[in-house]
User: Which sequence fits this backbone?
């Protein structure tokens, strides 16, 4: 099953079908994990934030969200590079949803109380690769800061 999912996620074809809901969410979760790991620290706060994001996006229970994150951790570890991971998402996820993905990436960056240069650089890279402008990414960052409050 894991190999089949990897194959579906990284099939390079112009006529590749849209990912089904679960596959697309695993790809997005893998990107969230990649951002969390960008500073070589993958904290419990980041894991918990990813679980909340996954639960919120698809109405998953805490256990289901943790299972999806665990699958995504394996996918992220096997993903060849960020360019191919984001290309998969860009080709198969609508722009409106990609904007919410950028917000989720910023949530992960701020999950542990601040943003590191490596994490910020990864979000900026992912934003560009997903076809989201710097302006839209910055607006998403500002919304996340306002929503997360003074702990950021």
Assistant:
């Amino acid at each position: 099953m894991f190999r089949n999912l990897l194959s579906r996620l990284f099939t390079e074809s112009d006529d590749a079908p849209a990912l089904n809901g679960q596959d697309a969410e695993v790809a997005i979760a893998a990107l969230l994990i990649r951002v969390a790991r960008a500073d070589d620290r993958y904290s419990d706060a980041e894991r918990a934030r990813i679980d909340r994001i996954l639960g919120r996006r698809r109405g998953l229970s805490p256990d289901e969200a943790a299972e999806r994150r665990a699958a995504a951790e394996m996918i992220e570890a096997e993903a060849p590079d960020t360019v191919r991971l984001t290309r998969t998402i860009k080709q198969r996820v609508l722009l409106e949803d990609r904007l919410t993905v950028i917000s989720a990436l910023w949530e992960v960056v701020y999950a542990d109380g601040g943003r590191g240069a490596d994490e910020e650089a990864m979000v900026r890279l992912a934003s560009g690769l997903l076809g989201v402008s710097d302006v839209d990414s910055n607006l998403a960052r500002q919304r996340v800061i306002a929503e997360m409050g003074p702990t950021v």
In short: The chain has a mean pLDDT of 87. Helices lie at 2-9, 21-36, 44-58, 62-78, 82-92, 95-110, 117-129, 134-148.
